[in-house]
Amino acid sequence: MRDDEGSAGLVPAPVPLAGLTEIRVHGVGGTTPETLLGDLSPTMVAGDRVAGFYRTSDAQGRHREAYSWGGLTSRSRSRALWALLLPSMFANMAGWMAQRWVTSGDVETREAPTTRPFRWAARLAALALTLSTAVMVTMVCLDTLAYQCGAQAACRRTGWWTGPLDVVAPLDRPGARLATGATVALAIALLFYVLANRTRSAYERVEPPTPISVDQGALDPEASTPTPSRRSAAAQVGGLRHPEFWSGALWHTHLSRLHLAACLAVVATMLGWPLVQLGSGALAAAAVVLGGLSLVAVLAALALDDAAPRLAIAVVLGALLALGLGLSAALVLPTAAATGALPGSREAVNVGWGLSLVLLVPLVVQQSVAWARRRALAESPAGRRRVDVFPWAGPFVMNTVAMLIANTVLLSVMVFVARALGRVEWGFGPGPGAVGTPGPATLWVPPAVGSLASVLSIGLITVTVVFAVVVGLWLRRAAGKDAVAVEADLRSRYAREGVPQIQSVVEPRTDAAWWRSAFDPPPFAPISARTSGHPSRWVRKVALMRRVGAHSRVVAWLFVVFTGFALVGLVLFLGYVWVLGRGAPMVLVELGTTVAVALPPLYVLVLTATWRNERYRRVLGSLFDVGTFFPRSFHPFAPPSYTERAVPELTRRIWRLHDNGGSVVLTAHSQGSVLAAAALGRESARPGDEPRVGLVTLGSPLAKLYRWAFPALFSDGFLAGLASGAAGIGRVRWRNVHYLTDYIGGPVRTEGSVIAGGIDVELVDPPTHRYVFDQPLPRVLSHTGYWSDRAFWRQVDEMCQAVRPGTAAPPASVDGLGTVHDGAGAVGDAGSQDAGSQDTVVADPRIPVRYR
């Protein structure tokens, strides 16, 4: 028996690598390989159960594989907890939203996608989120829990967790209580650092592939081991084209240490400053000074584009020394302590919040200067119209939204914790001569905390609801006006596509008598609906989806409105409190703080409950699949980037097939098309000519979302390189299939684009107006229905034929599920196959393979 025929046992048969292989790459939501391949039991041929390649039977003269990467983002319910890292994700996204005037041409390949001033300003803005978070967490630990609650016997009896405090932090030792609170804040900072390290070992540890050796196909382990890059991905020349763009482990380690040092410095400073007020002496002052110097060192180190391990470790050690001095000062604090809020905490918090706002100023200045320069270039004689981009200062907008969300939740948590422990009093302590009263513990909360928490939470919810109602009403009204034109367009296109019309007179008890047209009212509709002459409800739904598809990016204006709301609100609040000298306005504090505290766990609960439903998971998790696409080059505590593993794996699979006489066609949907573009656009540096790669994208957000929101990376020039066939991996033949009803995907060649024609293929949606009597009307396929469209599969078949020249493909038959079949079932002859072009299947798919 030949080895390539498999065995009668449980050992999987070898996998042929020669010939044509179609690799299907799914989008958001973690579509299973069973669904992608229409096979209940596909065979894993590479990777592991988290992200792997699966193969089913051959058809149409080609192997059929699926790259299932959903385990990196969506398969586990624990991933729902990443919703708590939404502000960090926004801060990291903001750094990738830079705009530049040059969006095509050779300049892109010679320069980094962003400038050094922007990278520094974006990192400072991301650090502002870390600092503001650290300030509020430390304030809760030091003031609310350790100093106030720990000093009251009534508060200590509120929960089991207060029992150990009698040993380590007695009532009569405020310094020991403060040291305990600082230790809790330290533990929270270390928790984020450890989580970042664990996710880095699972994602960033996979280095981008490098050529195996000078001789293509020769295995040389020493030459094939990639060397990790020290440079930030945002500073790599050529952006996505650079071979080391996805090598982010060392930079993420460096950035994690700097943010950890900043957190430690905040804890040390906020501990030392009140101790100075309480008379602790030189140790506390030294902690404040050294903590401040550590923060300055972090700010300076963020200007670097290359990881400096020794510098980062030195800064962390300096911050740890400052915290150690603060803890030592706390332990020798005298026993006497005033009641009320922690003395000096007000000034410490004001300085911390003020520094967080100041760190946003460099980004504001940089964005303003860059906007003025782009405007001047646009008005010059050589200027030309640019493709559409994010409406206004995307990096600043996203950082502001991140700060709004984090501050709204954390300020509300401060109020919620105090309310849970005792009775809340607004202020900083009892007045002179005040006498304590028996009963529940009294905890003092600054009025500004309650005021800002309620105003932010109620304001954000109100703005979101009003925005959604206004946009929804506008879309429906506009769709109603479009319905007549949409019906005429659909009838014209169906006629060109050869879709049969419904016969007005048919013989009874024939097949023709069963067919109806969705242009007509339902058979059992009221007489008024059948004689009104207005477009049917089905047509109006198509018109609405077309309108949504054309204006789905309007949601970006919600973030712009949030930013304007924040800026105006900040000016009014400071003017009301500081200029007019009035107290902070207290508006529905109970309601606002309760809602703000409940929203994050409610979102996590909804995600967890719906995680097994692919449809809901795709909708709720799509934001995270977009937000976690880019490397963590600006905020290390953001959710991990799945592309750090997915892009190298997809590239390696293509190389593996090429080196064994195979050719590849990528059929990539939605977010999968972005993965495919990143893999194909990367410079491979392999000797010799690579076989041509076919690329069929469906519902692709490459232009509608990524070129619009991230123009410095997914620029018109980068996409033009793919379209012209001159991609980094070699020759590429590309077709982009889209519907007008797609709210995420769309054409890549738009007004102002330099991309050549012939790439975009617009299909009609719904594919037909015909339906069987008493059956559902034709479904609007929109973004998720490409796989069931016969016209789409014809595009895939044509691409496979083009990539495999000289080989005639047998006639195809496509069923209603989009599965391609031939007359004889599976096709065994998928190209010349021999023993040298076969691969063995991983023996135990539960064990992850080793990556190089």
Describe it.
The structure is a single chain. The chain has 852 residues and is of the alpha/beta class. It folds into three domains: 16-75 and 648-822, 3-Layer(aba) Sandwich (Rossmann fold), CATH 3.40.50; 78-97 and 395-502 and 537-614 and 625-632, no CATH class; 121-204 and 248-389, no CATH class. The strands form five sheets. Strands 2, 3, 4, 5, 9, 10, 11, 12 and 13 form a nine-stranded mixed beta sheet that branches. Strands 1-17 form a two-stranded antiparallel sheet. Strands 6-7 form a two-stranded parallel sheet. Helix 4 packs antiparallel against helix 12 (345-358), helix 9 (249-277) runs parallel beside helix 11 and helix 9 runs antiparallel to helix 12. The relative contact order is 0.15. Mean pLDDT is 83; it is low at 213-223, 808-836 and 841-852. Keywords: Membrane, Transmembrane, Transmembrane helix. Residues 823-836 have a biased composition (Low complexity). The chain crosses the membrane at residues 120-140, 178-196, 258-276, 282-304, 311-333, 353-372, 393-418, 452-475, 554-579, 591-611.
